[in-house]
Amino acid sequence: MADTPFLIGENMTGGYGPVDILHNCTIAVNKGEIAVIVGPNGAGKSTAMKATFGMLNLRGGRVMLDGEDITKLSPQARVRKGMGFVPQTHNIFTGMTVEENLEMGAFIRDDEVGIKETMEQIYGLFPILRQKRYQAAGELSGGQRQQVAVGRALMTKPSVLLLDEPTAGVSPIVMDELFDRIIEIARTGISILMVEQNARQALDIADKGYVLVQGANRFTDTGEALLADPEVRRSFLGG
Amino acid sequence: MATSTRNLLLFAGVALLFILTGLFQSWNLSLQILNIGILSAIMALGVNMQWGYAGLFSTGIVGSVALGGLAVVVVSAKPVPEGFAAGGWAVLGGLALGVAVIVAATLLYRAMKPGRLRALAVTALVVAGFFLYRYVFDQGVAAVEAFNPATYGNIGGFGLPSLLAWPVGAIFAGLGAWVIGKIALGLRSDYLAIATLGIAEIIVVVLKSEDWLARGVKNVTGLPRPWPVPYEVDLQADPEFVARVTGWGFDPITASTIFVKLLYLAIFGAVLLAIIWASERALNSPWGRMMRAIRDNEVAASAMGKNVTRRHLQIFIIGSAVVGLAGAMLTSMEGQLVPGVYSPLRFTFLIWVMVIVGGSGNNWGAVLGGLLLGWLWLAVEYLGPGLMGWLTAALPAGDLKTHLIDSAQHMRLVTLGIVLLLVLRFAPRGLIPEK
Amino acid sequence: MDFLNALVALLNFVVIPGVAYGSQLALGALGVTLIFGVLRFSNFAHGDTMAFGTAIVIMFTWLFQSWGISFGPLPTALLALPFGIAATAALVLATDAGIYKFYRRQKAAPIILVIVSAGVMFVMNGLVRLIIGVEERNFTDGARFLLDGNTFKAATGLAEPLVIKTTVAVTVVVAVICVAALFWFLQKTRTGKSMRAFSDNEDLALLSGINPDRVVQVTWIIAAALAVIAGTLYGLDKSFRPFVYFQLLLPVFAAAVVGGLGSPLGAIAGGYIVALSEVVLTYAWKKVATYVLPDSLAPDGLMQLLSTDYKVAVSFSILIIVLLFMPTGIFKGK
Ligand SMILES: Nc1ncnc2c1ncn2[C@@H]1O[C@H](COP(=O)(O)OP(=O)(O)OP(=O)(O)O)[C@@H](O)[C@H]1O
Ligand SMILES: [Mg+2]
């Protein structure tokens, strides 16, 4: 498809403290596509996502959104530019109801009617949330929480959504469900950049895949090609 | 090299303050301030162990100081046999009973399975125990306090040498720290600050209101001096001393007061140096390195299998004991226990400011802070009203003038608070930073 | 009859004072708990914030009195409250901008903020003394009683009087209004919800575009308002002395910790638990006991469990029990 990616974190180098965790790492996603990042635990996948979202100081590299350099912007400013992020952990407001979680997701919007509309769309996408709308999000099951988390991020109507292991701690059936929803979201034109532990299924739905090891790109290709690559299969997909 | 010159200069500067005070005010005052400054420096060393080495923040330093002071009364005050005979055993028995109830409740709590039954049993035991304790204790107190309340009304002390009270003061303060540390350490760091605030207030209230113990706000006076410090009157009556000092061209009365203060200076200085020596050694031992490792990264340290809470408890007890020691030394120098002086401002807040201004984590920093702020504090106390009077001399007598002169002491609060905030903000490592 | 007398004595000396004091503590603890929830440290300057606000309220009360303005049967201080709140809010906002903000930016450990707040506490304490001195101040005016003892005795024929001081009634009414307004704000308004969100999960709040500076400022303003109201009500009910307000810090903290730091509901429950325990344990029960027990069992002592000097020990013991058995408090704070 398009040659210039919609969102790209290019040659990112940096970490949380003096030690670099990312080394010249690049991740990108095209308009309306799904890009998946896989790799062993501690590879720096979450760190790469946070770097793309401006949550740590980069010593090198840049982040471009729709052709604009956003490297210097704060996470809040990026939200306003149309980016949404679902962190790996602590991704919901546990003490607030499901509906309040969604409302907080829409905090930067002030079109009352539009917010209601988006909320309806999200309830359409995740019907269980409508049922539990007045329940505290902390009292939901793992899978339901992930739905709340994704729903909250969708409330800003982002043009690109970053998901860090949306299926963590979720049963295989619910996982398939979630992947279906994610494909559905991508079809509406939202680009999705996602980290996944379930590499096989994720690469299956991915337009593009990245294999990160020790903070650097090891393999980058289409999802299909990565699934077919014997070396990737041996080292990262368990044969 | 440069840093050690700098440090020497800093100490020289402080020394100059004391010399100037001696020259322009009196040597007596200068030495008086110096002695109290050294005691403050010892307290600062104790606090530095807790805060500087371990990152523990206690708001109850005044409690340790007060416990040290109490130790002096218990150990060295004159016995009051009649008072003790009247109800001493009942009082002690009551207290022992109280402790026994707490121990029994703890054992019961541990022995029983969690549940409503346990809660009920423990509560019943504590309530019954409380009434039993009060019954025995109150009778004893009434009897003790009835005996000659104008002079005694308390159980008296052991009449032992005052010097002995110093380690006892350390033990008292250490025990207090053990109890509070057991409860509040290992939880959120704020909880220690809150709990120590409470225990310190309670200790001071006990000293103020338990007349049977140390006469409460009626104060205990006439505590003996620590060996080998003589009384001024005895020196003045000693022909040999008088002959010698007049030979040197001094007035015997001034000479006797200065001699006594110099003796205190020597003793306190020796204790200070001993503590610095010991804590420097401890700091550079594996134990001290582990302590700092824990402070700098608690998570990593506990991941490495270090029992962080236990280490914290150790250092908390040791630091409090050092403060208690200084508290005992202070009371035995003053020869009286006046619970009213134990204000959190003077003995908690001022000591932190000493540690933080001096340089947390550095023993010499704590000493420098102790001497410098000790000087400032007392100099302002002695000189402040005079200074304010001089500043306002041109004003006509009236409300404003009195208000300004009165406000000199409140300014001290504001000034110290601002100093603390400024140092924390702009020089958080203090005058002599940690190596 | 005796039983009714005992009941009235109980109401008069335990329940009513306990509820009034509990309301005052609850308002104070709410401030502490909100600050803790949003800024994540225990604010040692809260007691002195209460004192500062009350001092300003007293100054304005005096001013109004000198102008001959009064509030009918109600204390003039209520008219002065908005001015006290404005001045205190301005002070804490300035403190935040000049002092706390720096440490927030640095992501300093909570304990550093605790120490800083203690520094602020001493500055504020000194300021209060400079402004109004250290003496006791009474600034209660208006009608003294809503229900006075003699009227009650005449109406009921009981031997025991039931007294409701105006200040007690004012305390309870104002506290109820404040709590209701606060909960409405937190539950229903966007800003209130964003405060809860921020307190619940700071990082996610930032990712949702919530402006942290605004949340922090609103929190300070609310905490300041609650502190001034709590301090003024306490001062009206008892009297004003800077030192006493410093000592209120412990029961206020105890109330916040009992309820669970960060939980507003917990702070309210904690306030009443601490206050009622304090009153129950330091009240001389002799009077009530004489009514209910037969003469042969009449007590000879005061039947006071703890002398009032040891009030502080009550809050402390409650604090210790909570720390030992449920460190996150009744309402599961942080
Ligand atoms: N907040 C942090 N501060 C310091 N170091 C961190 C932090 N978060 C992660 N790290 C370190 O960065 C490295 C990469 O962590 P990261 O969370 O990015 O891995 P990941 O690929 O997402 O792993 P996982 O699959 O387990 O989620 C790890 O070595 C980790 O210890
Ligand atoms: Mg991760």
From TrEMBL, chain A:
Residues 7-239 form the ABC transporter domain. GO terms for biological process: L-amino acid transport. Keywords: Amino-acid transport, ATP-binding, Nucleotide-binding, Transport. It comes from the Bacteria. The keyword ATP-binding applies. Transmembrane segments: none annotated. One of its GO terms (molecular function) is ATP hydrolysis activity. Belongs to the ABC transporter superfamily. This is ABC transporter ATP-binding protein. It comes from Tabrizicola oligotrophica. The lineage of its organism: Bacteria, Pseudomonadati, Pseudomonadota, Alphaproteobacteria, Rhodobacterales.
UniProtKB/TrEMBL annotation, chain B:
Coiled coil: none annotated. It is a multi-pass membrane protein. Keywords: Cell membrane, Membrane, Transmembrane, Transmembrane helix. Its main location: membrane. GO terms for cellular component: plasma membrane. It is found in: Cell membrane. Pfam families: BPD_transp_2. GO terms for molecular function: branched-chain amino acid transmembrane transporter activity. The chain crosses the membrane at residues 7-24, 30-47, 54-77, 89-110, 117-137, 157-179, 191-207, 258-279, 313-333, 345-364, 371-391, 411-427. This is Branched-chain amino acid ABC transporter permease. It comes from Tabrizicola oligotrophica.
From TrEMBL, chain C:
It comes from the Bacteria. It is a multi-pass membrane protein. Its main location: membrane. GO terms for molecular function: L-isoleucine transmembrane transporter activity; L-leucine transmembrane transporter activity; L-phenylalanine transmembrane transporter activity; L-valine transmembrane transporter activity. Signal peptide: none annotated. The keyword Transmembrane applies. One of its GO terms (biological process) is D-alanine transmembrane transport. The chain crosses the membrane at residues 6-39, 51-71, 77-99, 111-132, 162-186, 215-236, 312-331. GO terms for cellular component: plasma membrane. InterPro entries: ABC_transp_permease, BCAA_transport_permease. It is found in: Cell membrane. Keywords: Amino-acid transport, Cell inner membrane, Cell membrane, Membrane, Transmembrane, Transmembrane helix, Transport. Belongs to the binding-protein-dependent transport system permease family. LivHM subfamily. This is Branched-chain amino acid ABC transporter permease.
